[in-house]
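Take a sample.
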Amino acid sequence: MPQVSGGGIPRESVVGRPKANAKCQDGGAERAVLAAILRHGADGFMEIEEIVGARDFYWPVNQRIFDILRHLVHERDARTFDEPTILAGAKAQGMEDFAGRAREQEYLSSLFAEHVSLDNARSLATVVFKLSMARAAYYTTKAIQKSLEQMTGEEKITDILGLVENPIFDFTSRLTSTNETLVPLGLDFAKQMQTQMTHPVDVVGLPTCFPCWDHAIGGGLRRGTVNLVGARPKSGKSVFCLNVAYYMAKAGIPVLLLDTELNRQTQMNRLAALASNVDLNRIETGQFGSIPEEREAVLSVRKQIEALPITYCSIAGQSLKCVLSLARRWLMKNVGLDDAGQARPCLLVYDYIKLMNSDDIKNGMQEFQILGFLLSELHNWALRWGLPILATVQLNRDGVEKEGGQVIAGSDRILWLCSSFTILKRKLKEELAEDPPANGTHKLVVTDTRYGPAMEPTDYINVKSQLRCARFVEGKTWSQELANSATGNTPIEETD
């Protein structure tokens, strides 16, 4: 019977076709892992299954034996193994060819004859897993090469980069992801509590320039979350995002600003107004240069703005796959990963979630389905890399007076996957009569949150609008203003 060196594995697969040009495999290690499982029974299988699966084995005969053992353990509650039980399991799995061929039975008998300790088997299972990943990397690069060979030169540069980057990042995502195992909920409780006592923080996530909002959504922008802010058109969504990005960047946190509406020049002018406190219109028209004080104020923030770790990208008209490819590139180049394969502290801002072009609507899918899919992908991406995302969404006309998840343009499916949802809107005339503009012209209403206390139905956070210099300043909540009025405390007005 033909064999591979040191492995004793049939040269032919169970379907009778030879495995030519075997790459990144160790037949001896695969054989030893299976022999150890057969010797140590279900307990041995459970330990090995935490390391490898059937597809991690290179040889089809070994894949089938592992599949049979998994069936026996999980479906038939088998505790020990013998040849008749395994052959019966093969038939139950529809593998009559395995059960009825002498070559496979001879190989199975040889596995029962070997004695491999479980400790050695765990080490060898790790070898099998690493070789499986190496094969996956090999075939990933082969697939990339095949795709590149079909290039015509008509493609966009971003499309070509995506052909290379997307398979590589998908592969590395699988490589760096840790296998989930069943563990006691209280495992390392004392260690975690001690760490949190030793390193106390004011906010669990990344703090923003809106501390009341941070508290309401559950402690700032947490890792692995998508935090939505909804507003009607031209109500300040982009200004809100820029204020958060500027605050984060001043603290040294890298920020990626993905923009579907504006351009870099517009955002730079707004940032100059925000940092210098000079009227945005005078900056855009260049008239600030005629007044020495304004000219000095703008030029004095040059070094600060140039040094801010804010990366800008206009993504108008780009597909989600292309956008995530750009985001991964920024993550690897500008942020980096920690030892656990998670992003170092950073923030991704997506302004705003919408259909990019008519190609987004295909295969009969509706707009709300596409928007839900987009947010689902963003949510999965945030979880995968362990970073927070601040995204904006446009409210429908109901958002003028109603306050709740139903006012999101598109569908409430967007709401299902976000970690918090906040409405940013101008206060109504009736509200301004009770809560004057000095307290705030706009308001933040946190309607839904996975972590924080959110807000009472009638409460909101006052926001003082200074749009002349692209600034929002957080005020007190309406409940705090009412409490101040009840005690006779008059709030101190802030000058613009």
